[in-house]
Each structure stands twice: as structure tokens, then as C-alpha cells.
Amino acid sequence: LAYKLSILLPPWYDETLWFNVILRAFFLPFDAGSFGLLYLLGRRLLDPIGALRVAWSYALLLVPLEIFLGWFDVLPLFFMLLALYATLLGRAHLSALSMGIGFMTKVFPLLVLPLAWRRLRSAQRVPFTLLLSGSILLLAFPFVLINPQYFLASLRVNFERSSWESIWALLEGYPGFGQVAYLPSRFEVDMAAWQVHPSSLPWPGITLAFVFLFLFLYTRRFDWQGDGQGVVFTGLTLNLVLLWSRGFSPQFIGYLFPFILLGLPPGRGLAYSFLFSFLFFAEWPVSVFLSWDPGFVSLWIVGRTLLLIVLSLDYLFILWPPQGRVWVALQRWSFPATTALLLLAGLGGSAYGLQVYSRLRLDVEPLKPVIETLRDERLERSTVVVAPNSVYRRLYPYVRDGVDFYVLPVLESKFLHDSYPQLEVSLARRPTLWWIYDASRWEGDEGSRIDAWLSQRACRASASWYENTYAARYVTEIAPAVAAQQAEFGEGIRLAAFGVAPNVVSPGQGLCVSLRWRASQSIEEDYTVFVHLVGPQGLVAQNDQPPVGGFRPTSSWTATEEILDYHGLIIPPDAPLGRYELRAGLYAASGERLPMIDEKGQAHGDYVVLGQVEVSG
Q1: What torsion do the CA atoms of 96, 101, 103, 106 make, to the nearest 10 degrees?
Q2: Can you give the pTM of this predicted structure?
Q3: pLDDT per position as a tens digit, 134-166
Q4: Which of 95, 448, 484, 518 could form a disulfide with 86, with the two C-beta atoms 3.0–4.6 Å apart?
């Protein structure tokens, strides 16, 4: 019905908006009804002030709101509380109807049945049973009539579904979330037996153990007519079912709060509520953000199971006050000790979760190679110039230490003019500088202009696009091209002078090579300049790029013009120590190198040796 009504309205940007609004509007009276029932239950068990405290404590918890917005469990919870309230009032017919209707949404309303059965007089039990079973059959009849196979499959899936998000799932080696068959195949009856993983535990034995435990408790003596003890026993029944259940979904925690707030002393009830709320949000949505990291999931599953056990002990001690020093000590210290343990685990889990989150975000970050380079201990002394601020936000969590950030707030010409003095300072501050900008955030070529400006004042070692983000790395120690060199290449290109700084470098450091080119004629083709550092084992480091970072291609050179061309090389951190030969030359787009020309106009070789560079520790 909600879907049929929602498609009568034009869709919003999120096409599910109107469906969710209409569906939640349908749930709202039931959620408000649960709030009212909590107050009425509180009035029956407590004084008016206590009833208000219980109702508003529940209303102010964030978990019920999250459940209201995300699931349909407000329906079974309402019928569960209505059945409980009717049972305490002695209204057997209303109790039976509430359980029967609620059972057709989820099994939880039926958990009031043990208490109701005990409080019924013998003469009431047959009519009660007939009304309960009749309401279930009446509601089920249309579904059975339309398609009995689908109806049976909907029941079957609850018994054959594999474990999830529970201690049993961990024991079966599955730390993942609950899954059912994929949507296109859900209309296939046989998919009711679909399992995300096979069951390996002796479930008949586990079920019998919980049945015997429940029957043992159910046959113990206590005041079944006492309203407070009846609420506590129903809460205990709920706990046992949740501990036994193969799976556990986050919204199940919402069923615990009414019994915690009604059955326990105020301070302890609020403490339990906060702890379960923390575990709820650890499960949803934090685990989703962490891609269901097995370590994090296992931590909160164990914590939730432990807290459920301790809560069950608290209920037991209310129903049957402990006798003996050991039981009294257990009653006194079990909850404080568990709380302290969960808080410590929460601190550790939070730190671990942040690490997992950072790792996951880094794995999908286009700038991951840049970040990993910046995080290298040998390269930590860098200046990073970024634009806009969003790039800074992407980098800073990973490279906070040893890096100077300079953020250009906007890439517009009128503002960039004022930024160049600061860029001059940045070039002189540290031996390596990065220029990183997000081109998708800006129009025009301002980012390229800064790259050109830097390429004329520093030695660009690398430049790459990472999706829409550009990152260029520069060696800032300029080597003046003063060493005379008369190396003639084809096409009338001459290397007139060069410079290298420094001549002695350590692994992981940068090297700057300055080349002064001169052309004797116009050049039609664009050539790439290569600067290679070569050792006995072969090529160790290289820089291949068009002149001046591509901003002065050889086709733009004019006769007699001199071009000052800077090239940066980064020595690999694992480079062997020793002396290396530095070579330079040019090659065409085809990869063919320009030959060197001797005085007689004959070709001899295709590179010039600029000298030796020593790599030392």
C-alpha cells in the first residue's frame, strides 16, 4: 500500500523518499503507542514520576529512533508491550489477540505467552488458546489460500537460515552480516533453504539445552502474580531467546530496553541502556563503514553476548535473590566488572576501528601512491602545496607529521597573484615540494599555470593524474647550468651547459639536473628529454619529460633561443651505495633517440654523460 501511494507522487532525487515517508507515517502510531504503553506499564509497576522517567528515558534513547527509521520492528514491539500490559491487567482476550496479531509480524510478541499462561485461571486457558491460535490462523489464511508454498517457505527460512552476527556465527567462522537470497531469486520457493555459509554446530543439542534451561527456570517458584516479577521473567525469556538465536540483527536490541527500564533500578537500567546503545551503533552503522572488518565485528559480538548474559543474571537475582557469599558477590560485581571490561574494550575497539577506517579509505583514495610516498620516513621533509582545501582534507589524516602544508583556497587568477610570494618561501623551506590540485573543482587552467611557474623554478621529478587530481613532485635545490658542454644532437639541438646538485645523495633523496639547450634552427617535432642515472646493475633512476615540464616543447623553440630545463630525479630508498653515471639525451614520440653529431657531422652515440653521482649512506 505504501508503495502504491508513493508512486502517485513525482519522485524526489532519492526515489525511495516518498515510500519511506508514507511507510514511517504508518508506523508512527505504533511507535507512539509503545511510548504510551511504557508509561502505563510504569504506572502499574512504579509511581507516576517513575512511569514518566521510564517513558522519557526510552524516548530519548537514539536507538528506538534509528529502529523506527530503518526497520519495521515498531510493529512487533507495540504488540509485545500491549500483550504484556493486557496480561498484567488480567485481560486474557486482549492479551491473546495482541500476541496472535504480533506473531504474524515477528515471533517476539509470543514471548509474553509463558507469563500469560501462568497468570491465567484454569477456566481461561482454553478460550485463551483458541483465541490466540484462531487469530494467527485467521491472519495466515489468506496467504495460505493464495499460495501455500510461499507461506510455508516464509516459515521454513527462519529454521534453515545460516547464523549471522551472533556468538554462534563466530563459532561457525562467519563474522559477517545477515544475508538472504538475492532479490531476483526470492520468488523461488527452494531459495528458502539458501544459506550464506553451512551450519557446523549441533543445533538440535543447543536447542534442547536452552529448552531444558527455560523449563528449569519456568518450573521454579516465585510470585507469578507480581507485576514486577512478571515483567522481569518476560525480559529473561527474551534474553534466552536472543542468546539461543542463530542470528542477531541490530534492531533486536530495541526489544530489550522496555524490560531493562521497567525491571531494573533506575541507575542500572540507564547504564545497561547506554551500553546496549553503544553496541547497537557499533553494529550499525559503524561496522558498515568498516566493511564488516572481522576483528571489529567479533569484538562487539562477544561484548553484546557477555552483556546479555550479565543482564540475564541480574534478572535471575531479582526473581530468586542469591543465597551464599559467592552468589551475593556475583550479584554485586558482575555488572560493574562487565561495564569496566566493555568500556576498556570500547576504547581499544574505537582505536582499532579508526585504524581500519583509515586503511579502508586509503585503499580507495586515488592519491594513495602519493600518500605512501609522503609517509616514507626518508621523504618526510616535504612541503605540500594543495588546492582546494578538500585535497588537504584527503591528505592530512595520513601525512600529518614532518610535512608543511600550504593551502591555496581558490584557484583564480586574481587570488593566485598574491600566492606566489608564499610559493617562493615554500620552495626554499624543504628539499622536496609537491603541487597537488583537484581539477574537477575548478574551471580554467590556473592549476596548470602554477605547474608551469614551478617548473621554471624547481626540478620536477614526477607528474601524474590520479583520476581528477594532479600531483607533481619537485626537487627544490636548483643546480645552476654553468658547466660548459658542447654536445650536438640531431635537428640542430645543442646542450650548451648543465648543472647537477647535489653530487652526493642518500637513498630516498632528490637530485636536480639543470640543462641549457640551444637550437640552431626551428624544430618541427616534439622531443622528450631523458635524464638517466645508470649503475653496474642498470637503470637506477630516471626523469623523462618534455622540456620545462612540457611547457616549452621543442616545436616551440626558435633559432638561437636558449631554454633552461630542470629535471629532478628521486633516488630509490633501496638503491645500492656507490657511484653512478648520469646521462642525458632526447627521443622522439616513436621512442627513437636523437643521435649525437661529431665535428664531422657523423652520428656517434645517443646520449651525453654529464658526470658521476655518488649515492652514500
Answers
A1: -140
A2: 0.83
A3: 999 999 999 999 988 888 888 888 888 899 999
A4: 95
